[in-house]
Amino acid sequence: MIKCLCINDNNKPIQIPNEKWLEKGREYTLLFSMTVLPQKQLAFQVNEIDLDDSCSPYTWFLANRFAFREEDLQRLIEFIQDCNQITFSVNELVKEININEIV
User: Is residue 81 part of a domain?
Assistant: First the structure.
């Protein structure tokens, strides 16, 4: 698990409730990363906050809101690369699921 520290909790979108927003100085754990559009910027999902449908269209926190320890940088690079290699669609997942009819 890669820990990060929130360094920027400014400019909270009004769609996101206060309890689902970052807190400057608080530590978070990365779950996933990706480049988000239209900003074309690196962004993260964190374990401690679930940006659900009530926060729509926001589902990610931009990476510039976080700081990382120097000793975690290599792991962070590998984490980002691993997340970028995940290429699947819902249709592909459905094909892999064994569906049995319940009688």
Answer: yes
pTM across the whole model: 0.79
In a domain, 102, yes or no: no
Domain range enclosing 67: 3-96
Number of domains in the chain: 1
Per-residue tens of pLDDT for the chain, all 103 residues: 899 999 999 999 999 999 999 999 999 999 999 998 888 899 999 999 999 988 999 999 999 999 999 999 999 999 999 988 866 554 555 555 555 444 4
Three-state SS letters, the chain: CCEEEECCCCCCCCCCCHHHCCCCCCEEEEEEEEEECCCCEEEEEECCCCCCHHHCCCCCEEHHHEECCHHHHHHHHHHHHHHHCCCCCHHHHHHHCCCCCCC
